[in-house]
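Model it.
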Amino acid sequence: MRSHARTAWMAIVVLAWCAGSIASLAVPSSVSAAPSEAEILDAIETVRADPNISPERKVRTLKWLDADEPEPRERNGWMEWLGGLFQWIGSATRLILWLGIALLLGLLGLFLKRIIGDSRYSRTAPPPHTPTHVQEMDIRPESLPEEIGAAALQLWDRNDHRAALALLYRGLLSRLVHAHGVPILQSTTEADCLSLAVPRLNADVAQYTTLLVRIWQLAVYGAREPDAHQARTLCIGFDKSFPRVAAQPSGARS
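Modeled.
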Protein backbone atom coordinates (compact mmCIF):
# COMPACT_ATOMS: atom_id res chain seq x y z
CA MET A 1 0.00 0.00 0.00
CA ARG A 2 2.87 2.36 0.89
CA SER A 3 4.59 1.76 -2.53
CA HIS A 4 1.41 2.61 -4.46
CA ALA A 5 0.93 5.82 -2.48
CA ARG A 6 4.55 6.84 -3.07
CA THR A 7 4.16 6.21 -6.84
CA ALA A 8 0.98 8.30 -6.96
CA TRP A 9 2.64 11.10 -5.07
CA MET A 10 5.59 11.16 -7.48
CA ALA A 11 3.21 11.16 -10.44
CA ILE A 12 1.33 14.13 -9.03
CA VAL A 13 4.56 16.02 -8.50
CA VAL A 14 5.69 15.31 -12.09
CA LEU A 15 2.30 16.35 -13.48
CA ALA A 16 2.41 19.53 -11.42
CA TRP A 17 5.86 20.30 -12.75
CA CYS A 18 4.80 19.63 -16.34
CA ALA A 19 1.71 21.75 -15.94
CA GLY A 20 3.83 24.56 -14.66
CA SER A 21 6.25 24.27 -17.56
CA ILE A 22 3.46 24.27 -20.14
CA ALA A 23 1.82 27.22 -18.50
CA SER A 24 5.07 29.12 -18.56
CA LEU A 25 5.40 28.44 -22.27
CA ALA A 26 1.80 29.30 -23.14
CA VAL A 27 1.53 32.44 -21.06
CA PRO A 28 3.74 35.38 -21.92
CA SER A 29 6.36 36.27 -19.42
CA SER A 30 4.75 39.60 -18.93
CA VAL A 31 1.50 37.96 -17.66
CA SER A 32 2.82 35.32 -15.20
CA ALA A 33 6.32 34.44 -14.04
CA ALA A 34 7.52 30.83 -13.32
CA PRO A 35 6.97 29.56 -9.71
CA SER A 36 9.91 29.97 -7.49
CA GLU A 37 11.64 27.12 -5.66
CA ALA A 38 10.04 28.12 -2.37
CA GLU A 39 6.58 27.94 -3.93
CA ILE A 40 7.34 24.48 -5.29
CA LEU A 41 8.44 23.26 -1.85
CA ASP A 42 5.29 24.68 -0.30
CA ALA A 43 3.20 22.87 -2.88
CA ILE A 44 5.00 19.60 -2.16
CA GLU A 45 4.40 20.00 1.61
CA THR A 46 0.74 20.74 0.99
CA VAL A 47 0.40 17.60 -1.11
CA ARG A 48 2.27 15.50 1.49
CA ALA A 49 0.01 16.76 4.27
CA ASP A 50 -3.12 15.63 2.40
CA PRO A 51 -4.16 12.31 4.06
CA ASN A 52 -5.67 11.05 0.83
CA ILE A 53 -2.44 11.21 -1.21
CA SER A 54 0.25 11.08 1.53
CA PRO A 55 2.79 8.24 1.02
CA GLU A 56 2.53 7.35 4.78
CA ARG A 57 -0.77 6.53 6.48
CA LYS A 58 -1.59 5.50 10.02
CA VAL A 59 -4.06 2.64 10.19
CA ARG A 60 -5.48 1.25 13.55
CA THR A 61 -6.16 -2.47 13.60
CA LEU A 62 -7.18 -5.02 16.30
CA LYS A 63 -4.54 -7.43 17.57
CA TRP A 64 -4.89 -10.62 19.68
CA LEU A 65 -3.04 -10.37 22.98
CA ASP A 66 -0.45 -13.11 23.45
CA ALA A 67 -1.19 -15.32 26.48
CA ASP A 68 2.48 -15.33 27.51
CA GLU A 69 2.78 -11.56 27.18
CA PRO A 70 1.99 -9.87 30.51
CA GLU A 71 -0.82 -7.38 30.38
CA PRO A 72 0.61 -3.87 30.76
CA ARG A 73 -0.70 -2.16 33.82
CA GLU A 74 0.13 0.87 35.77
CA ARG A 75 1.11 0.41 39.39
CA ASN A 76 0.82 3.28 41.71
CA GLY A 77 2.94 3.72 44.81
CA TRP A 78 0.16 2.87 47.25
CA MET A 79 -0.58 -0.37 45.39
CA GLU A 80 3.06 -1.43 45.68
CA TRP A 81 2.97 -0.60 49.41
CA LEU A 82 -0.24 -2.61 49.83
CA GLY A 83 1.31 -5.60 48.05
CA GLY A 84 4.35 -5.42 50.33
CA LEU A 85 2.07 -5.28 53.36
CA PHE A 86 0.25 -8.44 52.27
CA GLN A 87 3.58 -10.22 51.72
CA TRP A 88 4.72 -9.24 55.22
CA ILE A 89 1.45 -10.45 56.73
CA GLY A 90 1.84 -13.78 54.92
CA SER A 91 5.39 -14.23 56.26
CA ALA A 92 4.35 -13.22 59.78
CA THR A 93 1.40 -15.63 59.67
CA ARG A 94 3.69 -18.55 58.83
CA LEU A 95 6.02 -17.57 61.67
CA ILE A 96 3.13 -17.34 64.14
CA LEU A 97 1.84 -20.71 62.95
CA TRP A 98 5.17 -22.43 63.56
CA LEU A 99 5.51 -20.77 66.97
CA GLY A 100 2.01 -21.98 67.87
CA ILE A 101 2.87 -25.54 66.81
CA ALA A 102 6.07 -25.45 68.90
CA LEU A 103 4.11 -24.16 71.90
CA LEU A 104 1.51 -26.91 71.57
CA LEU A 105 4.22 -29.57 71.33
CA GLY A 106 5.86 -28.20 74.46
CA LEU A 107 2.59 -28.24 76.39
CA LEU A 108 1.92 -31.78 75.17
CA GLY A 109 5.36 -32.88 76.38
CA LEU A 110 4.75 -31.35 79.82
CA PHE A 111 1.34 -33.02 79.99
CA LEU A 112 2.77 -36.45 79.12
CA LYS A 113 5.63 -35.98 81.59
CA ARG A 114 3.17 -35.16 84.36
CA ILE A 115 1.02 -38.18 83.53
CA ILE A 116 4.03 -40.52 83.49
CA GLY A 117 5.33 -39.03 86.75
CA ASP A 118 1.96 -39.44 88.43
CA SER A 119 1.68 -43.06 87.27
CA ARG A 120 5.15 -43.86 88.64
CA TYR A 121 4.34 -42.22 91.94
CA SER A 122 1.05 -44.07 92.25
CA ARG A 123 2.89 -47.41 92.03
CA THR A 124 4.76 -46.83 95.30
CA ALA A 125 2.62 -44.33 97.20
CA PRO A 126 -0.19 -45.48 99.48
CA PRO A 127 -3.79 -44.73 98.55
CA PRO A 128 -4.87 -41.06 98.75
CA HIS A 129 -7.04 -41.91 101.80
CA THR A 130 -5.05 -44.40 103.81
CA PRO A 131 -7.41 -46.61 105.79
CA THR A 132 -7.09 -46.73 109.54
CA HIS A 133 -8.94 -50.04 109.86
CA VAL A 134 -9.24 -53.14 107.69
CA GLN A 135 -12.06 -55.52 108.57
CA GLU A 136 -12.31 -53.81 112.00
CA MET A 137 -8.55 -54.25 112.57
CA ASP A 138 -6.64 -51.10 113.57
CA ILE A 139 -3.61 -50.83 111.23
CA ARG A 140 -2.34 -47.39 112.27
CA PRO A 141 1.43 -47.55 112.99
CA GLU A 142 0.97 -45.77 116.33
CA SER A 143 -1.47 -48.47 117.44
CA LEU A 144 1.14 -51.22 117.01
CA PRO A 145 4.21 -52.06 119.12
CA GLU A 146 7.63 -51.07 117.86
CA GLU A 147 8.77 -54.69 117.53
CA ILE A 148 5.71 -56.52 116.23
CA GLY A 149 7.40 -59.89 115.87
CA ALA A 150 8.83 -59.84 119.39
CA ALA A 151 5.49 -58.76 120.90
CA ALA A 152 3.64 -61.51 119.00
CA LEU A 153 6.16 -64.10 120.24
CA GLN A 154 5.50 -63.05 123.85
CA LEU A 155 1.76 -63.51 123.29
CA TRP A 156 2.34 -66.94 121.80
CA ASP A 157 4.51 -68.01 124.71
CA ARG A 158 1.69 -66.95 127.08
CA ASN A 159 -0.62 -69.30 125.15
CA ASP A 160 -2.56 -66.37 123.69
CA HIS A 161 -2.24 -67.84 120.21
CA ARG A 162 -5.17 -66.04 118.58
CA ALA A 163 -3.93 -62.63 119.79
CA ALA A 164 -0.40 -63.39 118.54
CA LEU A 165 -1.62 -64.30 115.04
CA ALA A 166 -3.97 -61.29 114.97
CA LEU A 167 -1.07 -58.98 115.89
CA LEU A 168 1.05 -60.43 113.10
CA TYR A 169 -1.74 -59.98 110.52
CA ARG A 170 -2.48 -56.41 111.70
CA GLY A 171 1.21 -55.58 111.47
CA LEU A 172 1.37 -57.11 108.00
CA LEU A 173 -1.51 -54.94 106.74
CA SER A 174 0.01 -51.81 108.31
CA ARG A 175 3.45 -52.41 106.75
CA LEU A 176 1.95 -53.16 103.33
CA VAL A 177 -0.01 -49.89 103.33
CA HIS A 178 2.50 -47.49 104.90
CA ALA A 179 5.82 -48.95 103.80
CA HIS A 180 5.03 -50.49 100.40
CA GLY A 181 2.11 -48.39 99.19
CA VAL A 182 -0.22 -51.33 98.60
CA PRO A 183 -3.72 -49.92 97.86
CA ILE A 184 -5.51 -51.85 100.60
CA LEU A 185 -8.99 -50.63 101.52
CA GLN A 186 -11.13 -51.08 104.59
CA SER A 187 -13.05 -53.91 102.90
CA THR A 188 -9.99 -55.76 101.53
CA THR A 189 -10.05 -59.50 102.22
CA GLU A 190 -7.12 -61.84 102.76
CA ALA A 191 -7.22 -63.02 99.14
CA ASP A 192 -7.35 -59.43 97.88
CA CYS A 193 -4.43 -58.56 100.11
CA LEU A 194 -2.27 -61.26 98.52
CA SER A 195 -3.24 -60.32 94.95
CA LEU A 196 -2.39 -56.67 95.63
CA ALA A 197 0.78 -57.16 97.67
CA VAL A 198 2.71 -60.02 96.06
CA PRO A 199 3.46 -58.19 92.73
CA ARG A 200 4.97 -55.28 94.68
CA LEU A 201 7.27 -57.31 96.97
CA ASN A 202 10.54 -59.10 96.39
CA ALA A 203 10.56 -62.90 96.39
CA ASP A 204 11.49 -63.46 100.06
CA VAL A 205 9.04 -60.92 101.45
CA ALA A 206 6.30 -62.15 99.10
CA GLN A 207 6.88 -65.74 100.29
CA TYR A 208 6.69 -64.70 103.96
CA THR A 209 3.51 -62.68 103.29
CA THR A 210 1.83 -65.62 101.58
CA LEU A 211 2.71 -67.98 104.46
CA LEU A 212 1.44 -65.56 107.12
CA VAL A 213 -1.88 -64.95 105.31
CA ARG A 214 -2.45 -68.68 104.78
CA ILE A 215 -1.79 -69.49 108.46
CA TRP A 216 -4.09 -66.66 109.52
CA GLN A 217 -6.89 -67.96 107.27
CA LEU A 218 -6.54 -71.51 108.62
CA ALA A 219 -6.64 -70.27 112.20
CA VAL A 220 -9.63 -67.93 111.73
CA TYR A 221 -11.79 -69.84 109.26
CA GLY A 222 -10.58 -73.40 109.75
CA ALA A 223 -9.76 -73.38 113.48
CA ARG A 224 -6.34 -74.88 112.72
CA GLU A 225 -3.52 -73.21 114.61
CA PRO A 226 0.08 -73.65 113.48
CA ASP A 227 2.51 -75.68 115.53
CA ALA A 228 4.94 -73.99 117.88
CA HIS A 229 7.89 -74.13 115.49
CA GLN A 230 5.91 -72.61 112.62
CA ALA A 231 4.49 -69.88 114.85
CA ARG A 232 7.91 -68.97 116.28
CA THR A 233 9.32 -68.83 112.73
CA LEU A 234 6.58 -66.33 111.75
CA CYS A 235 7.21 -64.16 114.80
CA ILE A 236 10.98 -64.06 114.41
CA GLY A 237 10.80 -63.47 110.64
CA PHE A 238 8.33 -60.59 110.79
CA ASP A 239 10.70 -57.82 111.89
CA LYS A 240 13.29 -58.98 109.34
CA SER A 241 10.79 -58.94 106.45
CA PHE A 242 8.97 -55.76 107.54
CA PRO A 243 11.19 -53.34 109.47
CA ARG A 244 9.60 -50.73 111.71
CA VAL A 245 8.25 -47.56 110.07
CA ALA A 246 7.76 -44.17 111.70
CA ALA A 247 4.33 -43.54 113.12
CA GLN A 248 2.11 -41.27 111.02
CA PRO A 249 -1.17 -39.50 111.68
CA SER A 250 -4.14 -41.47 110.51
CA GLY A 251 -5.16 -40.74 106.92
CA ALA A 252 -1.76 -39.20 105.99
CA ARG A 253 0.21 -40.18 102.94
CA SER A 254 3.67 -41.65 103.36
